[in-house]
Write a structure and sequence with these properties.
alpha/beta, Rossmann fold, six-stranded parallel sheet, three-stranded antiparallel sheet, 11 strands
């Protein structure tokens, strides 16, 4: 049985996170994704963190399973070659700006049913990146400890990740329509719109429109009961009670059912309701803190086994258990032996293909497009 996207070919002219992640998402589902870079690599070629060899780990991580073409994108011959690749594939994903020859209008002249997805900063074409978008949309002022005055940036490029996944969905939706109708598509995907839409979908924009100012609550779960607790050995666990059943199981497992009932009567609260658990979070946490403080992680695990309580110890990246079917050990060119993830979409046997070396597939891909790599190399169009 073939992969989900057998026969789908995509040309990706991109750098950094969002567009490469979109291309990799499709490559891991079986699409043939050809990443095109300028000679020497794009701006993300040396992005940190680095392997001991000096190779970029994000670059190799986000380009797994692709084919790599390195070509002089400033030369007419190089641009013509990429245009031929795009015309042959019929789908292009890019986040480059200011290159008219890569626009939908220019490329569709060579392939009328072209599907073209352009990731950009804002809806009006202004530049933006994850970190500036995040700053603009309010998240740094609800992140961090209660009472902290300044903004707190989180380290996950959440909008890049969401944008890359939106890009993959957008291309597949357009390809499905083309299969039915023969029509191509010109899709614009502004990074800021991805973040704004997410904030709206989660109710944050409506909350603000109704006049509420979302507070900082540290590690508490907003609108419910959940927070971190310190264990006897100084380590911490995160505990979450999303439902009345979760909270009842937490109270029972910690021997606090009676105390919780007494507190509810004292406060006139109903702890089967999310809002009351949130409003009285500090008082509830004070009931549970001594129980956690007297136990290690093994003791917590033993008490919560068989219950519905949601919890996890805090782990550093170096402590994560990598023994999972998602990860496989691969020989990554330029890096060495590493464990790398397959697609989390488990639709059958999952394999992990390394990222190619920069330009490793240049000759083969160009020859498949009817071009002469030797002649292009002689003229300096390819390395």
């Amino acid at each position: 049985m073939g992969t989900l996207l057998d026969g789908l070919r995509i040309v990706e002219v991109s750098s950094f996170v969002a567009a490469p992640l979109g291309g990799m998402t499709l490559a891991q589902l079986g699409a043939e994704v050809i990443r095109v870079d300028p000679l020497g690599g794009a701006a993300d070629r040396g992005r940190w963190p680095l392997a001991p060899s000096g190779a970029s780990l994000p670059w190799t991580g986000l380009n797994k399973g692709k084919r790599s073409v390195a070509i002089d994108l400033r030369s007419p011959e190089g641009r013509d070659a990429v245009t031929r690749l795009v015309a042959g594939a019929g789908i292009v994903l890019t986040n480059t700006v200011g290159r008219d020859w890569l626009s939908h209008a220019a490329l569709a002249a060579h392939r009328p049913d072209l599907i073209h997805l352009q990731i950009e900063g804002t809806h009006d074409g202004a530049p933006a990146v994850d970190y500036t978008v995040n700053a603009e949309l309010g998240f740094p002022f609800v992140t961090g400890p209660e009472g902290h005055g300044g903004p707190v940036n989180h380290v996950l490029p959440a909008w890049d990740v969401a944008c890359g996944l939106y890009a993959a969905v957008g291309l597949l939706a357009a390809e499905r329509r083309r299969a039915r109708t023969g029509a191509g598509a010109a899709i614009r995907l502004p990074l800021r719109d991805v973040a704004l839409a997410t904030a709206g979908n989660l109710g944050l924009l409506a909350e603000a429109q109704f006049g509420a100012e979302r507070p900082r609550v540290g590690n508490h779960l907003f609108g419910g009961f959940g927070r971190d607790f310190v264990l006897a050995d100084g380590r911490r666990v995160m505990v979450v009670a999303l439902t009345a059943r979760h909270f009842a199981d937490l109270a029972a497992a910690t021997g606090r059912t009676g105390d919780v009932a007494d507190l509810a009567r004292l406060l006139g609260a109903d702890f089967t309701v999310d809002g009351d658990r949130y409003r009285h979070r500090e008082a509830l946490a004070a009931l549970f803190e001594p129980w956690f403080g007297a136990r290690t992680e093994d003791g917590v695990a033993a008490a919560f086994t068989g219950t519905s309580v949601l919890w996890s110890p805090y782990r550093r990246f170096t402590e994560i258990d990598l023994d999972t079917p998602l990860l496989a050990e691969i020989d990554q060119p330029g890096v060495g032996r590493v464990r790398a993830p397959a697609s989390p979409l488990n639709a059958g046997p999952r394999t992990v293909r390394p990222a190619p070396g920069l330009g490793a597939d240049t000759d083969a891909v160009l020859a498949e497009a009817g071009l002469d790599p030797a002649a292009l190399r002689a003229r300096g169009v390819i390395a």
